[in-house]
Amino acid sequence: RIVIAMRSLILSLALYGLFATTHAYMQPFKPAGLFGGARLAKFSSPMLRTAPLALRRKGVNPAKMTAAATEKFEFQAEVSRVMDIIINSLYSEKDVFLRELVSNAADACDKKRFLSLTEGKGQEDTLEIRIKADKEAKTLTIEDVGVGMSKEELVNNLGKIAQSGTKQFAEAMKAKESGNNDVNLIGQFGVGFYSGFLVADKITVITKGFNDASGKTYKWESEAGSSFTITELENSDEIKGASGSKLILSLREDAEEYLDDFKIKSLVSRYSEFVNFPIRIWSSKTTYEQVPDEEANKDLKEGEEPKKKTVPIITQDWELQNTQKPLWMRPPSKVTPEQYEEFYKSTFKAWDKPVTVSHFSLEGQVEFRAMLFVPSQLPFELGANMFDENSKNMRLYVKRVFINDNFQELCPRWLKFVKGIVDSEDLPLNVGREILQKSAVLRVVRRRIEKKCIDMFADLKSKGGDDWQTFQKNFGKYLKVGVVEDNDNRQDIGALIQFPTSAFPKNASTLDGYVSRMKAGQECIYFIPGEGRAQCEMSPAMDKVKDSGYEVLFCTEPLDELCVMELKNFQGKDLVDLTKDEVKGIDDVADQKTKKEEAKQVLEKVLSFLQAALGSELVSKVEVSLSLRDSPAGLAQGQYGMSPQMQKYMKARAVSMGDSNDPDFLPPGMPSILQVNPEHPIVQSLKAQVEAGQDGEEQKRTARLLYNVAALRSGYEIQNPREFATLVTELMTSSA
Q: Cα(476)–Cα(672) distance, rounded to whole angstroms?
């Protein structure tokens, strides 16, 4: 009892110390006459954790004790540190500062245009954006004839980080419920203005507000620290018109490249080419004139024509930069094929003509506009690498402002060859507008782009002709990659792929074309993998369809084989490999199985001899095939075996990834199944010899020669070419 009483006393004293101190954790409490300070500090933490339990045992509610001590505090931030994060961490490259500031200027002009229509003032002002570099003062000025700002707006919009005046304006317009929702405003995060500090150590803003009744002009100035100044400019004519803003960037030494008008033009052309309002850049222009050469004309004789020289004349003037119009904003019915072609060539710096175009928009929960182009030639950058990450085939815009052209989330890689533009107001971007985030909105846009591309290809297929054949020649392999990788659209893409076929000596066939030509009673789509059409045609597997006359597709590339393996079936018809040991629709017929079993019993000794003579490294088993007609034997794989073409591909891949000089590094070839034709004279002759007890070296040479010929015709590599050549030579010598 004494121990329990002392523990309760210690707990009470500890709690008293906890609520008495202003620190987050109390200092060791040292009550005199009980324990030393070190002893109490040693177990004060577990005491505090068990205190609520002890109090409840005594009938005290600890929640009521702490409620009176609860206080609420606001998070604090060091402004200079936040500015440093915005300047150095938010944006991945400095060039985006101009995009952000021009977008802000465009917003200001948009607001003024809207207010001019609703309030009936300022309509005489020409809404435009001007950019001028001063190399002597090392400043870059961005001026707009927009809505401007009053003193209060300067404090609220520029003095509060992440305070978006654009967002507030948009919300105010919605609150009015005026029914006019066509105000396209870009900035929504309120930090784009501070991107100016990426290149400047001081920013000066001179502005006059549209709604400022006093009509005063103010100057806002900051050096990216924790403070800014606002000064009233009396009798100032800095801002012409009813309102506007002038942003002056005092550039840092490492940002003087932005004083070059060529650099400014390139950035405006890249990011802000389709902004609604004219963007004019103060540019230098050099022309050349012929003037009399005074030095050369000193000794000019009478009657001679005065000599002239060419001198450069440098002039400066405002040059309109954004002459290109956002073609995707127009209805498709208002755009001509010539306009599509011109836009495609100028936007993507292409020289070829697009084969087809898809121009569409999506409205509803997700809204965006898009234009998709199929080139008539394989883009140069995709020639060496069909999935080159630097191909930049899709360009993302948000309200006509360019955001990015180097991302994978918006378009699957099997559509890497399609050039396109997507402009949306709903795509979620990070605050720097540079990294596209994965979201439900993005998935909707991606699925719609995929569907539109497939529809575009299907329309091209329905028209046929040279355009379709050119498309297949250049981009058919991308469609097969789509079959392999795109689970959702596999069947739709499968209807577009083509293969060489036994039905046509030169032309390829689509799968639906094959199905339309299928024989009565045919249940499967048959194919043979091989290195080229000639290899497929000479394969012993072709004997399996000789009597039935079934059409056969030729998979002449490793990608073809992967494609049919993933597709598995098309329009309810299984895709079946004729080089397998058991072929559906041919070898699984009931009477064929009975005949095969009978032939196996007749050739039992020959089959055993061949298995022993060739060994398990070459053949996994030897069996009878009733499907073979002209060939004495053929090689096949099991249902999950790897074709000879795929084996070669895997070896080549291993060589490219490792040491090709190390034979142990290369994957071994898979043992094959040797199928023999029981009716062929060579097999019958060998049968007679084996049954007569002649199973010596001569019969073994015949077995190896039979295997090598089957391997050669079936597309396999002959593992011992020297032995094969020797066997052929001996055969020729014996018959000479």
A: 32
Is residue 379 a contact partner of residue 391, using CB atoms and an 8 Å limit?
yes
Helix (H, G, I), strand (E, B) or coil at 718: coil
pLDDT digits (tens, 9 = 90+) for 77-119: 566 676 676 666 667 788 989 998 999 999 899 888 888 887 7
Torsion over CA: 695, 699, 704, 707 (sign): negative
pLDDT at 502: 95
- For tokens 């030579």, the residue is 729
Q: How many CB atoms lie within 10 A of CB 54?
A: 17
d(CA 401, CA 423): 8
CB 307 within 8 A of CB 298: no
Contact present, 321 and 262 (Cβ < 8 Å): no
Averaged over 356-367, what is the pLDDT? 89
**Residue 140: pLDDT band by 50, 70, 90 thresholds?**
very high
Structure confidence at residue 666 as a pLDDT band (50, 70, 90): very low
User: What is the C-alpha radius of gyration for the chain, rounded to an integer number of angstroms?
Assistant: 41
What token pair was written down for 617? Answer: 């490294």
What six digits make up the tokens of 50?
Answer: 């068990």
Which residues have C-beta within 8 Å of that of residue 248, sequence separation ≥ 6? 139, 140, 141, 203, 204, 205, 206
Contact in structure between 196 and 102 (CB atoms under 8 Å)? no
What is the DSSP secondary structure assignment for residue 240, as one 8-state letter?
-
Which one-letter DSSP state was computed for residue 488?
T
Dihedral sign (CA 477, 481, 483, 488)? negative
Which of residues 444 and 294 earns the better pLDDT score?
Answer: 444
Encode 95-125: b = buried (16+ Cβ within 10 Å), e = exposed. bbbbbbbbbbbbbbbbbbbbbbeeeeebeeb
- Structure-token pair, residue 130: 């001007």
Strand residue runs (E) in 84-225: 129-134, 139-144, 200-208, 217-222
Q: Are 246 and 238 in contact (CB under 8 A)?
A: yes
pLDDT at res. 385: 86
**Which tokens hold the place of 303?**
């009657």
- What are 672's strand-pairing partners? 619
Of 305-319, 327-341, 493-507, least confident by mean pLDDT is 305-319
**CA dist., res. 390 & res. 107, Å (int):** 32
Q: Which two tokens stand for residue 670?
A: 């898979």
Long-range contacts at 486-495 (CB < 8 A, ≥ 24 apart): 486/412, 486/414, 486/450, 488/447, 488/450, 489/450, 489/451, 489/454, 490/566, 490/567, 491/567, 491/570, 492/454, 492/458, 493/414, 493/454, 494/567, 494/570, 495/458, 495/570
Q: How many CB atoms lie within 10 A of CB 651?
A: 16
Check if the beta carbon of residue 210 is closer than 8 Å to that of residue 242.
Answer: yes
Average pLDDT, the chain: 81
Kindly list the strands in the beta sheet with 619-624, ordered across the sheet, starting from the edge strand earlier in the chain: 619-624, 672-676, 633-636
CA nearest 131: which of 272, 18, 37?
272
Residue 641: band (very low, low, confident or very high) from pLDDT cuts 50, 70, 90 = confident
- Tell me which residue of 422, 397, 402 sits closest to 266, measured CA to CA: 402
569-600 pLDDT, tens per residue? 999 999 999 999 888 988 877 777 888 889 99
Q: Please report which confidence band the pLDDT of residue 17 belongs to, taking 50, 70 and 90 as the band edges.
A: very low
Cα 728 from Cα 716, distance rounded (Å): 18
Tokens 């030639």, residue? 377
- Residue 61, pLDDT above cutoff 80: no
